[in-house]
Design brief:
Elements lengths: L1 H98 L4 H46 L7 E6 L2 E7 H4 L9 H15 L6 E6 L13 H18 L8 E5 L12 H7 L1 E6 L3 H10 L1
Helix pairs in contact: 2-4
């Protein structure tokens, strides 16, 4: 009986030992499985990354292949251009060989021609500068005249620059009575304002032109419209000289009659526009010719 009890105790102890050993191994196995599973997942992640890099490399390879093909095409085109330039260089060299037969006198003639071209170019630039300066002075003169005269009706007085020349057109209804060459008091006031500007420009010379319409002169004092236009011009010149002190050497009086109309003489308004006195600021031709002589 005692032996049986002892056997039972030994068997129970053995079972307990076996049970403890199995639990320990299970836990170790479970830990190893967890570790292996983690390593497996890590390897899967690295595999996917490697696969992505492989695909990117394939795409880069295809792109590089396309670029290489394009570059080869460009190289081929450049080689063609180089061959073309070599051919042209050969032609130029042959032409230079032909030109080498130019004599010393011919070479000197070519050199002088080039110098002449350079001097002409400088001359043209000087002329352009002088013309620009003249245009600027003309515009300044026009602005001064308009400022001095004030707000008169454009139908009575018109100041403009045309083809580099300053014109002052004054209607005869402002200056003279019909058929007369006696200047009105109102006209003297206007001429005084014009004279003030012209006196401030002592180097300017000008011409006073008389113009009529096409209606024949019917008075007894004069012969015709030629006479009338001249008398009106000289009347203006005398006022500018005697009353406003303009140097007579700067002035020219001229009659143009009816032969340079600016409007249609078949209408009353047209005839009124044609009856006018024009002051023309004369170009300073002497200074222009002096400029030419210097060249």
């Amino acid at each position: 009986m005692q032996k049986i009890s002892t056997l039972i105790l030994i068997a129970a102890a053995s079972t307990s030992v076996v049970s403890c050993v199995s639990t320990k191994k299970y836990k170790e196995s479970e830990a190893k499985y967890t570790q292996l599973n983690g390593a497996y997942l890590d390897l899967q992640s690295k595999y996917r990354e490697a696969q992505g890099e492989l695909n990117a490399c394939k795409n880069n390879t295809a792109d590089l292949t396309n670029r290489n093909t394009a570059l080869n095409g460009q190289i081929a085109d450049l080689n063609k251009q180089v061959d073309y330039l070599k051919q042209n260089n050969s032609q130029v060299l042959n032409q230079l060989k032909d030109l080498s037969v130019i004599s010393g006198s011919q070479a000197e003639s070519i050199r002088k021609s080039m110098e002449n071209i350079s001097s002409k170019d400088a001359y043209i630039k000087d002329l352009q500068s002088s013309i620009s300066r003249k245009d600027s002075l003309n515009m300044a003169l026009v602005m001064n005249l308009k400022g001095a005269i004030g707000n008169l009706d454009d139908k009575d007085i018109n100041i403009k620059v045309d083809k580099g020349v300053v014109y002052i057109d004054i209607s005869d209804k402002l200056l003279f009575k019909s058929g007369s060459y006696d200047i009105t008091d109102r006209a003297k006031d206007v001429l005084g304002k014009v004279a003030k500007v012209l006196n401030n420009q002592p180097d300017i010379e000008f011409m006073v032109e008389g113009h009529t319409d096409s209606v024949a002169y019917k008075g007894t004092q004069l012969v015709d419209n030629w006479d009338l236009s001249v008398k009106r011009a000289t009347s203006v010149v005398r006022v500018l000289q005697n009353q406003y002190g303009l140097d007579p050497k700067r002035m020219t009086a001229a009659g143009r009659g009816q032969y340079i109309p600016i409007a249609d003489n078949s209408t009353a308004d047209g005839r009124a526009a044609n009856r006018r006195t024009r002051i023309v600021v004369l170009p300073q031709l002497d200074q222009f010719f002096k400029l030419l002589e210097k060249k």
